[in-house]
Specification:
Blueprint: H1 7-13, H2 24-27, E1 60-69, H3 73-86, E2 90-98, E3 102-112, H4 116-124, E4 129-139, H5 141-166, H6 171-203, E5 204-214, H7 226-249, H8 252-273
Parallel strand pairs: 1-5
Antiparallel strand pairs: 1-4, 2-3, 3-5
């Protein structure tokens, strides 16, 4: 076994990268995927059983985009709060935009995976008129399994290198083993971070909700009075007049050429008479 070999021999037969080839004897004993990222690597003295059949459950990431036209933004906000509390969801990001023509409230909502469908149905029923709806599901089980297997192997190799470090005979061997340990620890941190990210996206689905209200300026539907609309009309008329005057002024070179052309034409006509 590797534990009985000299430090140099062990360094040759066990590379630091788990994705590369290692000795045939060790490859045949590669571990099965751990049931969780916190599971400890198999110790050197513990035999690695090839009959272990730990499995990883399906990893499905759900995302949704929903745009709803509402009659009142504030009322829609209150309804949203009630729906979120009912489904144990929370707002990750909120953005409000108010223009002359419309009001927009954009929310990024995180909800437990099991409540995602119920949340979508709650917003779709009774909140307002659904303008657009897009739901997607992404199966990341294969990626999760692959990262888990590599992570488990890297942890085993890390323990091997730590044991090798204890019996290293030369300074060169010590430095090389320490460098391999450092690289393995960095790779393990990246893999564990990736698994945590996937778990977060799987356990909590994401919904991008947009609440939209169009401002209709008419006597039948708008709260804007006659005085305000009369003032707007005067302003628009004045702006149109100013635009007209500025447009005329922009033709000033032609105004200078016209008198010159007339003068030349009269002189030419006078000479022709003579």
């Amino acid at each position: 076994m590797l534990a009985d070999e000299s430090p140099k021999a062990m360094m040759i037969s066990v590379p630091h990268d788990s994705d590369k080839e290692i000795s045939e004897e060790y490859t045949n004993k590669a571990p099965t995927p751990p049931s969780s990222i916190s599971e400890k690597a198999v110790s050197e003295n513990e035999p690695i059983s090839t009959h272990k059949t730990d499995t990883i459950s399906k990893k499905i990431i759900k995302n949704g985009n929903l745009r709803i036209q509402v009659g009142d933004i504030k009322k829609a906000q209150n309804q949203t709060s009630e729906i979120l509390n009912k489904n144990q969801a929370y707002i990750q990001k909120e953005e409000f935009r108010n223009t002359d023509t419309d009001e927009n409230l954009n929310l990024v909502i995180r909800v437990p995976h099991k409540n995602f469908d119920a949340l979508i149905n709650s917003f779709s029923d009774g909140m307002g008129s659904v303008l657009s709806k897009n739901i997607s599901s992404d199966d990341v089980t294969e990626e999760y399994t692959d990262v888990s297997i590599k992570l488990a192997n890297k942890k085993i190799y890390l323990e091997k290198y730590r044991d090798m470090l204890k019996s290293a005979a030369t300074t060169k061997d010590i430095l090389e083993i320490q460098e391999n340990i450092r690289e393995l620890e960095d790779e393990i941190d990246v893999s564990e971070g990736r698994l945590r990210f996937i778990d977060d996206r799987v356990n909590y689905s994401t919904l991008n909700l947009s609440l939209y209200k169009e401002k209709v300026r008419s006597s039948a539907t708008s709260k804007i009075g006659f005085g305000s609309r009369f003032g707007d009309s005067i302003t628009e008329g004045w702006n149109s007049f100013v635009s007209f005057v500025l447009g005329i002024i922009s033709f000033w070179p032609f105004f200078l050429l016209i008198p010159l052309i007339i003068l030349l034409w009269r002189r030419w006509k006078a000479r022709r008479k003579k």
